[in-house]
Design a protein that fits this description.
89 residues, alpha+beta, Double Stranded RNA Binding Domain, 2 helices, 5 strands, flat, binds zinc ion, zinc ion binding
Length: 89
Amino acid sequence: MRTPRSTCHDLKGGRKPSISIHNVQLVGGRWLCPCGKNYKSKTSLSLHMRLECGKEPQFKCDHCPYKAYQKIALQKHTYCKHRRVVQTE
Ligand SMILES: [Zn+2]
Ligand SMILES: [Zn+2]
């Protein structure tokens, strides 16, 4: 009798921790993202990379084509430009 052989290989490397900050540089005290943005702190940069970098802004203005990455930015914009308050649920 033959026993089927498992051809499973151990995958090397495995998963990286939630956010990998590679190819970023610290230039003149600023953390530089490959997209061109730079931040004072590595935390802000990792936040940017997680929420913004390479993504479409998800908060859109109802009154003009403006888009924002953060709700607070859209709220500010809507108030400043349109004198309206963004309805939040
Ligand atoms: Zn970026
Ligand atoms: Zn607008």
